[in-house]
Amino acid sequence: MKKQAMVSCAQPEAAESGIEILKAGGNAVDAAVACALAQTVVDPLMCGIAGFGTAAVYMPANSTHEYFDFHSPAPLAAREDMWESLLEGETKDGFGFILKGAVNDIGPQSIAVPATLKGLYAMHQAHGQLPWSVVVEPAIRWASEGCIVRPGMYSFWIDKPLAGRVSNLARLHYCDEGRGLYCNADGSPKIIGTPLVNQDMANVLAQVAQEGIAPFYEGDLARKMIDHLQSLGGLLTMEDLKQCKVHRVQPLVGTYRDRTITTNQPPGGGAMLLEMLNILEQFHLESMEHNSVDYLKLISEAMKKGTIDKDRYIGDPAFVNVPLDELLSKERAAQIADEIRSGKRFEVQRANPGAPVPKDTTHLSVVDGEGNCVSLTHSLAMPSGIITPGMGFFYNGCMGVFDPRPGRAGSIQPGKSRFSSACPTIVFKNGKPEIVLGAPGGTQIAMGVLHVLLNMIDHGMGMQEAISAPRFSSTNNSIDVCNRIPHAVTRELQAQGYEVGRNPYNYTIGWVHGVQITESGLHGGADPGRDGVAYGVKLGCA
Q1: Are 324 and 306 in contact (CB under 8 A)?
Q2: Measured between alpha carbons, how far is residue 177 from residues 45, 172, 229 in Å?
Q3: pTM, full prediction
Q4: Digit-coded pLDDT (tens) for 378-392
Q5: What is the pLDDT of residues 303-320, one digit of tens each?
Q6: pLDDT of residue 359
Q7: Residue spans of alpha helices (H) in 350-423
Q8: Which residues of 122-141 are buried (b: 16+ CB within 10 A; e: fewer)?
Q9: What is the DSSP string of 423-483?
């Protein structure tokens, strides 16, 4: 009997790369690293080697269960009050700040320390079994031989600009390199089906494949990046690259019903996810009509409370004392549940709230034939718009989420990482992994993951059904719904005094990709809101 393995992610080319590595004898970590590197080529605004990420690795044969956190810290030249006078507002969903001149949103000062390449390399060095050059090879091929503009990629490029934020098209236009790679001569973005070749990035990846990551963090590639960014007025230095660290930490562990939920530590979104699950555990969701008026009201209050506590308490634990014991207390969750039963509506405070942040980031989930599992979320935040000539990749725009107001959990400090809603998660039942999942989607990541877990655990859905079910969110004082939530439901909510926002998209509120492990085999799910797939493969003989 052959062993089954599976890769689920938002890009067919990247999933294919992961499967290729599994067929070549690689394990889940090899496949995840190859898949992630391919994603940096074939989804260049969603992620990149100059971005950040967080990844769960579970390998039962050697009792490994850990997270690789490679968040992008603020440059050492950053200061807590450097943008305080520029504050104009906060995004409605609380995942970014609007500053005069958009200096935090686009351009050289929006760039925090690139960490993704170091994180992927650390994962491979710790747990991979194929040579590094082999797992980089698929990404080199996608860059040199080309991929195509996919519908999900194109729709992100042409999203309308939001109030106070820079449009995605402006990010493509910001530098000559971006325009040359992704736009036509008239400045319009290349349309669906257009081939994309990026030989500059292929060359960078080829050097990294042969020499490792030292050139990128301390050698000739590093010097080229820093000289260029400093010529533009950027904050990054060679010392920032040299000091970039990958943190290997234990999972944050909680329970929901009869499951054990393992997710990431702060400044990731795992604590927010567990807090919401703890609150909802106090209710009999299985007996409620799915996506009914009462269901939306209940889940939304848990989401708002999780958002309030995230804003107040959760930040980089090296700089902020995050009260995890209090936030994740079952007793506290019971008290919050009582408040919800009494009719309390939580109020999310925002500074002059403007439009929500566009939804970025990408995710992959891998399970191999030996039962090894990887859940990895990585991102550029909103890309800075800058590509160093001859290098082919966008830098992150991670400074946009830092709070420009001093003295807060999310305030800017040199070397500090900002909160990310990313929460790659592995769920265990009876001591064995059952669900491997995560999502892109900005501040909606934890909400999308929450929905899928509730759909599977409380409502008995399979992975794909749970992912495809209509979703809603409340990261502000509005209940925001996708366009497949019936108008009869939202009209009743409005009649009860709730503000409701209707998204024109049928699939939104995070884009979840995961693998369900059952006695009958692996079942994958890919979010219909993106271009993704869940590819399975049978390997060798058991």
Answers
A1: no
A2: 14, 9, 14
A3: 0.96
A4: 999 989 999 999 999
A5: 999 999 999 999 999 999
A6: 59
A7: none
A8: bbbeebbebebebbbbbbbb
A9: --EEEEETTEEEEEEE---GGGHHHHHHHHHHHHHTT---HHHHHHS--EE-SSSEEEE-T
